[in-house]
Fold this protein.
Amino acid sequence: MSSQTQNPIMRDIALFAALGVLVLVIFVSQGAVYSVRMLVEAGCYGIIALGLTIQWGYAGLFNVGIMGFIAAGAASSMLMTFPRNPDFWNSGGPELAGLFIVKLIACALALWLANNSNRWGVGPRLRALLITIAIAVSYLVLSFHMTVMSEEIEKASGWMGGLGLPVFFGWIIAGVIAGIIAWFVGKICLGLRSDYLAIATLGIAQIIKHFLKNADWLTNGTLTVSPMPWPVPSPADGEFLFARAAYLSVVAVALLITYLLLQRAYHSPWGRMMRAIRDNEEAAGAMGKNVNRRRLEIFILGCVLMGIGGAMLIHFTSIYDPSGFLDLNHTFLIWVMVILGGSGNNRGAIFGAIFVYIVWVMSEPLAVMLFDAIATYGNQWLGWEAPSDFLSRALQMRVFVIGLTITLVLRLAPQGLLPERQARH
Amino acid sequence: MNDLVFFLNKGITSGLIIGSIYALGAIGLTLIFGILRFAHFAHGDLMTLGAFVTLILAAALAALGVTLPLPLAFVVMFPAMAITAVLAIGLDKMFYKPLRQAGARPVVLVMASVGVTLMLQGVIRLFAGVRSRDMFVEAPKEIYRIPIPGATRNLVVTEPQILLMLFTVVAVIALHFFLTRARLGKAMRAVSDNPDLARITGINTEHVVWATWIIGGSLACAAGTMLSMDVTLKPDLSFNILLPIFAATIVGGIGQPYGAIAGGFLVGFCETLAVFNWSIVLRPFKDELWFDLPSNMSLVPTEYKLMVPFLILIIVLIYRPTGIFKGRVL
Amino acid sequence: MSLLDIKDLHAGYGAMSILKGVNLSLEAGEIGVIVGPNGAGKSTTLKAIFGMLNITEGSIHFDGEDITGIGSEQLASHRISFVPQENNVFPTLSVHENLEMGAYIRRDDFSRVMDHVYEIFPPLKEKRHQPAGELSGGQRQMVAFGRALMIEPKLILLDEPTAGLSPMFMSQIFDRVIAINQTGVTVAMVEQNAKQALAIAHKGFVLAGGQNSYTDTGQNLLNNPDVAKSFLGG
């Protein structure tokens, strides 16, 4: 019995040690500056992967919209922390924005009243009519206001600018906004088929990205926002390596704190309840545990982590580019991290994040080299002319490999990678 | 009168076209939902794949110097549909069937389909690049301008659009007859209703699964091809087309083919009419209106077109998750 | 030689065993009724016949052939019909289509059989184009029965056919079971309403705790005071 509980720990140590060796190799071959940058990004992905792990491992939720939560978190943090745009504050913009928020609250209230009108004796048909009217009127009022507001802002000051608040505060707001979106999505979808959550999260990610890409008044659109403020002295102030190392320590601490908190939660009464639901949902439901409520909590918590991790990532890259969020990099890559690392296992998620990210970053130059070789030798030996965009197609190989990884892992573990059952004490 | 023609062109015709595309895609998706019981995320890329198969066949024929009264792409679409159907069965055998046989949860099948869609995307863009292509390999498409009495504007309909509408009508009628008269069609409905009972009754579930992929795959090919013929063939269609088709499927009720058709047209028309510039149609009445007519009065700006299917999806999920035709929810 | 011969069957779900050595044999043309308290393994015995469970020991023979562990999809080809207790029709298919599905494996003209089914269950004939899901509980049960008869089975397995039905429907069902049996179909029936079921049974099997408790003719079991006391309360 004791060897069975010892083996996972030995295995974990061995894997992390191997990972350490890999990191060392990178350090030596690519230099410290590059490696530290890679580690920071991997660390941010680690936090995001932890968020996904608890959603999949504890609640079996298939979230295909990670990109959306990352983008929303990054945008919120950007808006909170970027220095103020004096042109904006001197124009009619703030007033319009404030008015928009007031109208938004009013419409939400009207919709809530219409939705709950059945409590005051309103019949179902009348209620449906009230809801429809509330939705239609809210939509017209808000979209009209938004058109006016966006035109005014873009004309007068280009874009809104930020609020210039401290970076850590921005990161927390990132988590809050992601959590609020998660609340809406979860409330609607949890309790229905599991496929619905997948479809809805896919949709919300596309919508969020679409919106942020087109809302120039909010995000500066294609002009992008830079430089993003750092919580530690940025490379502009000090040396590259020192700044990045400082950022790395912030990320490492955040990752450690997140991991420890999750482990604490796992062993707490709340965690035990979550495991009871995961292991036998019907029994737990019969005992009166509100399964959907718990799932919603997990979903929100996971998305909060994704928002925070996303904000940390984007601040680090120094440029906020709303078109830079890609399904591949920001959703499916993270899924590979989680399923390779062992879903439901927090340590595994961190391992998976670092390992997969290293492979991912290294794969880009490797793929280009490979395709270059194919083009050259193909020309020399077979007289074949590669198409002009051949090298850019090299990156499509990565898309294929990610897809292949996912399907292969599922083939080899078709039970859906049941979360690791911890030893019972 | 001119404005009415404009409405017919940009409103009605566009709605019919995109509605037909969504309907054809949604039929396959809803059958897969009902019989194989999972959301097939790879359907969008199946459509793209089908369109590429058509393009390759058409280009091959054009290189041989073949010309026909109908566009080559449309004629080769039919063998392409068969090829896509076979490919779909192959994908099922390699990736989905082993999971089904291992008793995997539906969520796992959805994940597998995500893996498949990424592989298809990668392969398609690897071999074809990311640029758009023209499906009309031998001659540009025919555009019919029909003069309308009392207007200076013409009613514009292109040949592929006419072919699409004809195809959709024929496909829907054929599907109806198949599902209600053919033994295999009824067996499909039976499996969709109650798979355990179907097995006990002796219905050959393997044949039903094949039929599902054949119908789904071939209609996806048709939808992808004809969409590309209407616009251009874009390799990155994937998720942008998947969302409206999912919306159409859920609106119509999961597992309900007629619902999928209705849902497809509903989503298509909502999308088209939401981005339509209504101020043009209201222009003749502008004196009777109580407000100034802005130059652009559309419900949704064109860049945000994607929001329409998504909003429809959300509203349906909140208020009527079973859809119009009462499909399965859990 | 018996038509259905279940010998010393040990079976269960996964590691948990429910049947701990059940014996059951029926001659062709008999009505066999399985009764017993809840959890005794009555329905489980039926389901074991087509691979819904993990069989660890014992054997099942049908018409001389060893069918231990066959899957549910092979039932029809062996001319065994199963009528589940719940979800036993195709709700969106019409009554007529339900019956057609019952005859799915038949390649010949089965209109004669269908007419026969409509004779046994006249209400179905007038509702034959209605979706089966819209019918009342008793009529749905008739559809389920009729569907099972379409392959002209040698053996029909009924899982609590009168569950949830009114007493009037109950006796109608039992009458029809007798009628079907008289055309030569062997019946194996699990029933909660033990008294009425045993009254029409050629053989009765009382199960308790996954094992045989009493085995005798239906009439003898009814007259047995021990059986009456323990199992035939209602």
